[in-house]
Structure formats: structure tokens, C-alpha cells
Amino acid sequence: MKTRGARSFITATLLSLACAAASACMARELFASRDEGGAFMLIAVKTGEPSSAVPRTMEVIARRCEDMGARCKVERQGGEQSNRIKVSISGASDITRFRSVLLQEGKLELRPAVSKPNPSPLQTYPTREAAQEEAGALYDVVPYEEHNEPAAFLVVERRPVVAGSDLRSADAAPDYDGKRYMITFTLRPEGAATFGDWTERNTGRYLAVVLNGRARSAPYIRGRITDSGQINGDYTKEQAEDLALVLRSGSLPAPVEVVEAGTYKP
């Protein structure tokens, strides 16, 4: 009996490892609770390389499902070259919010702003065209939307100092006035070392916190910063919690589009 049990355990372990390694094992189900039905959506991953982007998208969506505490089944539709994923969701109390969190891009970058350092004010531009003229071919232009005010534009360096892949954690926290919320984050050791070196060398420079292609804030560097930072953006508690969850799970590797949605029964 002991030998048979050991063999069963080893067999189950090998099957689990094979499933994790094989690209054909494309269904992932979270939580052991009974499927009571719910909502589904069929999404298309908009990429020219579905063989790599689709499995990565499935992993990110599955992590977000798990973090939000619902039961999800994430399946690839149509074979290994297909760009379609079906997500079946059971147990979500607010399906609209749930879908929004699952499909957020979640791309974070800390990018140096092209501006004279403090005490000069941050250089902004009233239109994208004016910013683009200054940026030329060397830099990028991003909208600047601190505290949800009407957008100006920033010119930023093309290469980020650190990016979302350097994140170790992200959490929602009350802002300084206690009325709104911000996102605090910490960095992995390698990202923290890079960030510390850069901030030590660039005291006084403005650093744009770019989230999904939009600068949410651009503070100036007061001294060496190592493994932590924050994103201010005039968020509600729910918005900050959702964004922190998205950042913890990692960014989607490519844009996604919902091509079908509805409900299902178990």
C-alpha cells in the first residue's frame, strides 16, 4: 500500500510538471469549489506572436482571478496558433469591475523627464505637437495627468530606469490628506540597486511615473531612493486596490479585445 501510494504521488507530480511545461496544457482552473455558473468572455490577444503572448496572457489573467478571490477557468480556444482565450468566471460579486481588472494593461515605467532640474519647474507642453517638436527622434511624448487635471504633455527618455518587471509588491494606501488613495510599491533587489544608483546620480531631476502610457506624477529626486516608491493619482480606495492588484500580477504582454461575452450555467 505504501509503494502504491508513493507511485501515485510521483505520477501525479510528474503529470503536474508536464502540464506546467507543455504549451498544449492550456486550461487553468482556480479554487476547488463547485462551479455555480457565472459569466464568460472570449478575448483576442492582439499580437503577431500568439505562441508566446497567449500563454503569458493566460498566466497573468489567472493570477488576477486568484487575487480577486473568484473561481476562474482560463482556456485557449482553437489550438496552439490561435489568439483566442475563453475566461469563465464564477463567484464574482461585481462582474463589471472584475472584467475591468482582468483586462487592464498594467504597464508601469519610471522614466526620466526631459526638463531642467529642480528648482526650475517641470517642463510641460500644452499640446502633443509642441512636445513632439521638442522630443524629435530621440525621446518619447506622454500625456501628463496628475490628479486627473486636464492633460498636458511631457517629453521623457525612451529607456525607463525601472519597469513593472522590477516590482516586488504593490498595495493601496491612504494619500496624505486621508481622503484619496495612492499605490505604494517596492522593488526586487536588482531593480532596487539600479534605482538607487540612478537616483543618487540624478538628484534634482524629475522622474515621470508612467502607467499604461500616461504620466501620473513626476516628482523630483531629493536623494538616493532604493527599493520603494509611490504612485499618486487622486484614486478612490477601489481604484487604488484594483490598480495595485494589476501591478502585482504583472502586465499583459499584448493588447486584448473582448470579442464575445455572456453568461453560462454549470
Structure description:
With 266 residues, the protein is of the alpha+beta class. The protein has six helices and 14 strands. It has helices spanning 2-21, 50-68, 95-103, 128-135, 189-201, 237-249, and strands spanning 27-29, 38-45, 71-77, 84-90, 108-112, 140-144, 152-156, 162-163, 167-174, 181-187, 207-211, 214-217, 228-235, 256-264. It has a five-stranded antiparallel sheet, covered by helices on one side. A hairpin with a 6-residue loop joins strand 3 (71-77) and strand 4 (84-90). Helix 2 (50-68) packs across helix 3.
Structural class: alpha+beta
Put simply, the count of helices is: 6
- What portion of the residues fall into strands of 2 or more residues? 25-35%
Task: Specify the biggest β-sheet.
Answer: 5 strands, antiparallel
Helix residue percentage: 25-40%
Task: Choose one word for the global shape.
Answer: globular
Which regions are unreliable across 5 or more consecutive residues at pLDDT < 50?
Answer: 1-32
Strand line-up in the sheet with most strands: 1-3-4-2-14
Whole-number mean pLDDT:
85
Work out the radius of gyration: 22 Å
